[in-house]
C-alpha cells in the first residue's frame, strides 16, 4: 500500500456525533473543514477521544472503498494557530473603580491581603499534599489487591497446569481498570487526558485553555490516573499531580466553586486573572513537590516551564506552598505506614523554638550595627583610623576569648572518638578538656559543625550562654570594619549556640527528655533563625540549610522559623544588607511599590525642565550639556525642532564616543572622516568611557552639527502622566533593568516635558539617569499578555512646554 498521511485536529461535539459540524477555526480564516472524497458504503468515523485521524491519501481499490466507508477530513496544520483560545487578562485594569477601591484601602488592609495570599498558598500546598497522599495510598492498596489475586492464581495453576487462565485473568484485570479510566476521561472530561502539563504550561504562559482548571477535571484526573497506574500502563502519576495542584490552586484562590454553585464569600479580591495565575503557579509547583518530594524543583519548574511573570515575593510564596505540600504528604504517609516519629518531632521543634526571639535579637543586632556604622562614617573615615580600629577589635576579641577560657570550669571528658582539633586541658583533670576553649580554638565553620553534630552533654548550659552573649556583641562590633569579612558564619554560630542551649534546657525541665529532638536539631533551627533575623534571607537560606542537612523534612521547620524571624525583625528595622545600602546612599529599587501608593500618579513625581537634544544638534550644545554638572544625566531625550516631538533617547556614553571620533555632519560631507563609525567602536570604549573633560573640541568644531538619528534609540518606553505609582514600579521593576544596565534608567512620560525627581528610581543619578519626556498625546502600548512584551507605538505629538 502507498504511504498514508494522517492529519489530526481537535473535533467538535458535532464531529463526535457524526454530524457535519464546524471545524476548529484557524488563523487563516478557514472555518469549514474540507471533506475527503466520498467512499461508497456506510461506516463510522474512526475517532480517538476528541481527536480524529483523517485523509488517507492513497489510491483505494473498490474493495477497500466499500470496506472503509465514508471518511471525513478535518484539516490541521501545526503552523496555524487556533482562534478558540484567548489570552488571560494578566495586567490590572486600572480604571476609576479599581483606583477608588485601592485608595479606600488602608495600610492594614493591604497587609491583610498579603496574609491572605500566604493563607491561600498554605491551603494549596496542604490540599495538594492530601490529593497526592490519596493517590499514593489508593494505587498501593488497589494494585496490591490485584497483584495478590494474580499471584495466587499463578501459584495455583503452576502446579496443576493451565497458566493461560492466569494470563487471561491478568489481561482482564488490567483491561477493566484501563477501560474505566478511559471511559471517565473520554465521556466526562476529555481535557483530563494525558499528563496535563502542556495545558498548564499554556495557562501559566497566559493562554486561557477551556475547562483546564475545573473541579470536574480534577476529579476525573485523580481517578483516571489511579486506574491507569493500577491498570499496568507504562505511565506515572507525577504529571497528573502537577495538573491536579494547578486545579486546586485555581479553585481555592477564588473562594467559590462554579461547578458546585457554591460561594464561600472568601478571597473575592483574588477573582481576576492577575492573582489567579500566580496561585496556579504555586499549585503547579506544589504538584511537582508532592510528586517528587522536591520543593526547590517545584519552584524551578514554575519558573522555567511556565510562568511569564515573576517576582521575589511570588518565589517565596510558591516555595512555601511546595514545602507545605511535601510536608503534608510525608506526614500522612508516615502515619499510614505507622512511622510518624520523625515528622512529629519536627513539628515539636517548630512549636517550641520561639523563632520570634531570633527576630528580636536580629533587629537588635542590626540597630546596634547601624549606630556603629553611623559613628564610623562621621569619625572613623581616615584610613589610619580604620586600620587602628580593626587592630583594636582583633586585640579585644583575643583578650575576651582568653578571659572566658581562663575563668571557665566546664571540663568535659576527652573520649577516644573526640572531634576537637585543638583540645585545651588548662585547669581540667587529665583526660579532660576545657569546653569553652573548644568554641574559641576553632574556626567559626568548625565550631558551627561541632554544635550541630556533637553528642548531648558536650557543652555546659552556662558555657553556651556566656559564649552566645559575648560573640553576639563581638560580631556586631566587627561587621563594618575596613576588612574583608562576612556575617553569615558568625550569625550561624550565635544561633547554633543559642539553639543548642535551648535544647539542653528543654530536656532538663522535663522528666523524660527523650520526647524532644536532639540538641543538634535545635542548633540547626536556631542557626537558621538567627541568620534570618539579621539578613532577612528566606528562600536561599532555606535551601542552604536543607542541603546542608541532606534531609528535606527539615525544610518546613526551617522555612517557618525564617518567616517568623523575618516578619518580627521587619516590624522593627530593615535587614542588615538593606541598612548598609541606605547608608551608602544607593538608589535601590525594591520589587513592590509601597502598599498605599496607588493615589500617587506619575505627574506628582516629575520635575522640569527637561534637557533635550535635537535630532541634528550643534556640537557646542552637546558639549555644554554633558559638561553641566547640574544636568549630569546618563541619557537624553531626542526631539524634533519646532513643535517638539519625541523621537528617541541617546546615552551619555554614546555622545562621548561620537565626540571622540568627530562624527560631525560637516566632516562627513567633506569626506574628511576616514571611515564610518561602527558598533565595534562603542564596544571598545565599554565600560570605562572617557569623561567629557578629556574630549578636546576646538572652537571651530563647536560650530559643527551632529546627526543623532543613526545612534539614538528610536523606541524608548514611555509612561502616561496619570499612571499610578504602582504601575511605574511595574515598568521600572520589570523593564528598566535593561535601561539601568544600558545606562539610561528612565522611561518617557506623557503630557508635558518633565523628568523623574532624583531618588524616585534606582537611576536618580546617584550614578546615572536620563530625562523623562512627557509627550502631549498618549502613546499606544500594545500589550500581549501571552508574551509579556510591550510594543510601544509612538503617535505624532503636537508640542511640549
From TrEMBL:
Location of region: Disordered:
1-41
- UniProt signal peptide: none
The UniProt entry's GO CC annotations, sorted and at most eight, read: lysosomal membrane
Keywords per UniProt: CBS domain, Membrane, Repeat, Transmembrane, Transmembrane helix
**Top-rank taxon:** Eukaryota
The reply on keyword Repeat is yes
The biased composition feature labelled Polar residues covers 1-12, 27-39
Is Membrane found in the keyword set?
A: yes
User: Which spans are transmembrane here?
Assistant: 118-139, 167-188, 279-302, 314-335, 385-407, 459-482, 488-510, 522-546, 552-573
Bilayer topology reads:
Multi-pass membrane protein
Q: What is this protein called?
A: Chloride channel 7
Task: List the source organism.
Answer: Gasterosteus aculeatus aculeatus (three-spined stickleback)
Amino acid at each position: 500500500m502507498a504511504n498514508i498521511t494522517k492529519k489530526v485536529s481537535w473535533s467538535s461535539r458535532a464531529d463526535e456525533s457524526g454530524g457535519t459540524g464546524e471545524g476548529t477555526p484557524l488563523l487563516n480564516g478557514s472555518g469549514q473543514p474540507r471533506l475527503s472524497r466520498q467512499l461508497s458504503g456506510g461506516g463510522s468515523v474512526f475517532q480517538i477521544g476528541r481527536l480524529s485521524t483523517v485523509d488517507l491519501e492513497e489510491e483505494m481499490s473498490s474493495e477497500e472503498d466499500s470496506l472503509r466507508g465514508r471518511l471525513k477530513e478535518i484539516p490541521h496544520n501545526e503552523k496555524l494557530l487556533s482562534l478558540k483560545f484567548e489570552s488571560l487578562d494578566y495586567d490590572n485594569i486600572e480604571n476609576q473603580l479599581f483606583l477608588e477601591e485601592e485608595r479606600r484601602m488602608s495600610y492594614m488592609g493591604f497587609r491583610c491581603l498579603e496574609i491572605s495570599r500566604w493563607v491561600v498558598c498554605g491551603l494549596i500546598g496542604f490540599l495538594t499534599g492530601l490529593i497526592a497522599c490519596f493517590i499514593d495510598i489508593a494505587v498501593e492498596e488497589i494494585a496490591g489487591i490485584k497483584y495478590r489475586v494474580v499471584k495466587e492464581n499463578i501459584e495455583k495453576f503452576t502446579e496443576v497446569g493451565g497458566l493461560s487462565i492466569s494470563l487471561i485473568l491478568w489481561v482482564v484485570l488490567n483491561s477493566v481498570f484501563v477501560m474505566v479510566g478511559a471511559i471517565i476521561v473520554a465521556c466526562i472530561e476529555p481535557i483530563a487526558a494525558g499528563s496535563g502539563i502542556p495545558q498548564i504550561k499554556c495557562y501559566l504562559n497566559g493562554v486561557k485553555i477551556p475547562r483546564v482548571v475545573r473541579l470536574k477535571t480534577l476529579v476525573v484526573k485523580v481517578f483516571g490516573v489511579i486506574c491507569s497506574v493500577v491498570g499496568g500502563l507504562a505511565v506515572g502519576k507525577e504529571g497528573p499531580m502537577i495538573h491536579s495542584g494547578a486545579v486546586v490552586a485555581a479553585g481555592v484562590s477564588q473562594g467559590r466553586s462554579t461547578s458546585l454553585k457554591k460561594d464561600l464569600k472568601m478571597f473575592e479580591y483574588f477573582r481576576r486573572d492577575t492573582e489567579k495565575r500566580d496561585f496556579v503557579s504555586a499549585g503547579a509547583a506544589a504538584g511537582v513537590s508532592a510528586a517528587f518530594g522536591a520543593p526547590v524543583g517545584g519552584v524551578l519548574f514554575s519558573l522555567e516551564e511556565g510562568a511569564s511573570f515573576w517576582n521575589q515575593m511570588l518565589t517565596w510564596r510558591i516555595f512555601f506552598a511546595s514545602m507545605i505540600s511535601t510536608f503534608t504528604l510525608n506526614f500522612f504517609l508516615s502515619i499510614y505506614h505507622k512511622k510518624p516519629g520523625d515528622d512529629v518531632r519536627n513539628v515539636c521543634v517548630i512549636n517550641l523554638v520561639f523563632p520570634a526571639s531570633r527576630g528580636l535579637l536580629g533587629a537588635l543586632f542590626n540597630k546596634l550595627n547601624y549606630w556603629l556604622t553611623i559613628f564610623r562614617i562621621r569619625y572613623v573615615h581616615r584610613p589610619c583610623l580604620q586600620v587602628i580600629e580593626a587592630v583594636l577589635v582583633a586585640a579585644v576579641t583575643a583578650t575576651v576569648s582568653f578571659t572566658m577560657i581562663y575563668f571557665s570550669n566546664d571540663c568535659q571528658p576527652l573520649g577516644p572518638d573526640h572531634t576537637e582539633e585543638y583540645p585545651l586541658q588548662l585547669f581540667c583533670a587529665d583526660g579532660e578538656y576545657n569546653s569553652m576553649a573548644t568554641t574559641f580554638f576553632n574556626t567559626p565553620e568548625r565550631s558551627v559543625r561541632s554544635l550541630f553534630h556533637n553528642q548531648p552533654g558536650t557543652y555546659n548550659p552556662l558555657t553556651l550562654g556566656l559564649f552566645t552573649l559575648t560573640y553576639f556583641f563581638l560580631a556586631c562590633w566587627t561587621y563594618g570594619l575596613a576588612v574583608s569579612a562576612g556575617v553569615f558564619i558568625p550569625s550561624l554560630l550565635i544561633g547554633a549556640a543559642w539553639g543548642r542551649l535551648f535544647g539542653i534546657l528543654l530536656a532538663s525541665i522535663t522528666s523524660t527528655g527523650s520526647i524532644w529532638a536532639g540538641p543538634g536539631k535545635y542548633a540547626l533551627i536556631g542557626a537558621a533563625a538567627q541568620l534570618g533575623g539579621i539578613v532577612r534571607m528566606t528562600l536561599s537560606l532555606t535551601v542552604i540549610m536543607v542541603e546542608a542537612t541532606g534531609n528535606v523534612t527539615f525544610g518546613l521547620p526551617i522555612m517557618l522559623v525564617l518567616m517568623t524571624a523575618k516578619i518580627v525583625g521587619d516590624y522593627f528595622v530593615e535587614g542588615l544588607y538593606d541598612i548598609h545600602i541606605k547608608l551608602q546612599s544607593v538608589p535601590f529599587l525594591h520589587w513592590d511599590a509601597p502598599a498605599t501608593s496607588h493615589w500617587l500618579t506619575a505627574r506628582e513625581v516629575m520635575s522640569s525642565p527637561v534637557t533635550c537634544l535635537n535630532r541634528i544638534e550643534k556640537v557646542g550644545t552637546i558639549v555644554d550639556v554633558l559638561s553641566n554638572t547640574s544636568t549630569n544625566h546618563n541619557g537624553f531625550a531626542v526631539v524634533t525642532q519646532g513643535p517638539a516631538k519625541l523621537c528617541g533617547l541617546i546615552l551619555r556614553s554614546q555622545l562621548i564616543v561620537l565626540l571622540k571620533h568627530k562624527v560631525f555632519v560637516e566632516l562627513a560631507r567633506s569626506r574628511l572622516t576616514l571611515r564610518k563609525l561602527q558598533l565595534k567602536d562603542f564596544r571598545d570604549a565599554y565600560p570605562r568611557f572617557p569623561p567629557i573633560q578629556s574630549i578636546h573640541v576646538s572652537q571651530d568644531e563647536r560650530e559643527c552639527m551632529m546627526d543623532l538619528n543613526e545612534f539614538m534609540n528610536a523606541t524608548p518606553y514611555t509612561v502616561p502622566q496619570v499612571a499610578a505609582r504602582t504601575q511605574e514600579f511595574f515598568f521600572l521593576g520589570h523593564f528598566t533593568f535593561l535601561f539601568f544596565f544600558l545606562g539610561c534608567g528612565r522611561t518617557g512620560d506623557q503630557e508635558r516635558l518633565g523628568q523623574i525627581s532624583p531618588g524616585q528610581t534606582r537611576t536618580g543619578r546617584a550614578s546615572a539617569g536620563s530625562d523623562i519626556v512627557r509627550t502631549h498625546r498618549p502613546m499606544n502600548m500594545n500589550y500581549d499578555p501571552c508574551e509579556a512584551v510591550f510594543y510601544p507605538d509612538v503617535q505624532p505629538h503636537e508640542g511640549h512646554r
